[in-house]
Amino acid sequence: MRVLILLLTLAFVAPAHADLLYVLNSGDADIQVLDAGTREEVRRISVLREAHHLVWAPDRSVLLIGDSGGNEMLFIQPATGEVIRRERISNPYHMEFSPDGKHLVVTSLRRNQVDIYNWDGADLTLAARLRVSDKPSHLAYRPDSKVVYVTLQGTRSLIAISLETNQPLWTMEVGRDPAGVIWHRDRLLIGIMGSDNVAVVNAETRVVERRVVVGRGAHALFVGPNDGPVYVTSRVDSRITVLDPGSLAVLHAWNVPGGPDCLTFDPEGRVWATLRWAGRVGLVDVESGTMEETRVGRSPHGVLFVPRRDVAAAVPAPAP
User: Fold this and answer.
1) Of 40, 124, 214, 286, which has the fewest Cβ atoms less than 10 A away?
2) Which residues constitute the domain of residue 54?
3) Residue 97 falls within a domain, yes or no?
4) Side-chain-side CA neighbours of residue 95 (13 Å)
5) What are the tens digits of pLDDT across the range 117-132?
């Protein structure tokens, strides 16, 4: 009997090194781990209140998932979904590691603060807390890791913060309710959620050089595999727009019912999208634009595809 229980436990925790899909159900206070091949649930992780975003540690040994409503950061073993530890962190809404892997910047949408943490490869240490106004949302880094840029939804603005002094450098207006932001080929691209466009910003001159129309509720931006196209989700028009990585011309515009929010990519180049209003995850074929849907929890937000090569590498070797 003990052997049978052990085998069943191992099968549940590590499903034969399958590709995994992590889905953060912000409306259900949990994290679903799916077998990406079968779409079957292999684990469900309870959080205190409301998980929104997640990020790989720089060495890809652990996942960090922010429970913004519960004021916790979860450290997750990516191969199994096992919770390694939980750490008290103030309102971790959006977060990203700096390109050099030395800092984790966390935005607090509810508390109007930006926290800068030092990272030593295992632990976070709070280096600075900046009070900002208002609604700090998403963030992106300059490639040299010296500056972080944060969108401020409540003031139509973008703020630049020095990671050398941990002090603000400047603020500029970019449009109503700015949300997602990425650094792309010497420019910042910002989803203007209160409108229908992506603002293309020159951070040196602090000028909005152009606007690319993508659809109402332009929200988050993601660069495809191998520095490929830029994907933009528009939650009001329920659309995913694909932009040429060089010219930013619109290549495709897929109507995706359910309010697409966050995206992740698998090794075959397919796009997985959380459908925020529908409680589903969509798998989009980039050639045809067709989508398959899988029911998940309420208000799914962050999503991450973990390939089996990462799963296999992260599973501890059996004891001799």
Assistant:
1) 40
2) 2-314
3) yes
4) 35
5) 999 999 999 999 999 9
